[in-house]
Predict the 3D structure of the following.
Amino acid sequence: MSAFLWGVVPYIALTSFAVGLVWRYRYDKFGWTTRSSQMYEGRLLAWGGPLFHFGILGVLIGHFVGLVVPSSWTETVGISEHSYHLVSVTGGTITGLMTIIGLALLIYRRRTTLSVFRATTRMDKAMYAVLGAVIVVGTYNTIAVNLLGAGHDYRQDVAVWFRSVFWFRPDTAPMSAAPASFQLHALLALLLIGLWPFTRLVHVFSAPVGYLARPYIVYRTRDAVGAARAPRRGWERIDG
């Protein structure tokens, strides 16, 4: 079971992620969107949106450093384990709570605003459930285990397993020895990765790059008299 969970499931999730993105881009380009609902409700979105997005950005940066950068590298540049742990726990607690509060506001908004709730698909509901579970368990590990508890250096087991997966030589032993809550967090994250291409989360891979080279749009009136409001100085209509 350990070999399957940590040596096979990661590749199932990554395959679903890669193939799903290609399929979605080729056959569902018009569905590659967040299906914005800002026009239906803006007050809760104005608070929940920034809290969630800035919080999750901080969480992802912290995960990248913790999982991808070996502890030997940070020690080489003069960052001690105590300093790293302090920054990691502090930043993880702040960004984790920001993400949870933001996500809670967004889910509350989606459930209580009828027009937004009607635009919510079954896959949206599944995505929110899995994403919320990933964030809650991860924040638990940061606060209950590393801040208030005895602490656990996940860079000695979870990070080692994580990097080995991308070298196509999965080392399952370190992950098998990790605490149960860290294993649960990893499994939920793999489930989210597998579901990612089939949810609104695909918008993460979208960027308005074309706007940089897009020509500006010139609006001209067809009214011979002009607009109802007098033009500003320097913008008067030129006839002839």
Observations:
- Residues 2-211 form a domain with the Fumarate Reductase Cytochrome B subunit fold (CATH 1.20.950.20).
- The radius of gyration is 24 Å.
- The first helix runs from residue 2 to 7.
- The CA atoms of residues 16 and 194 lie 5 Å apart.
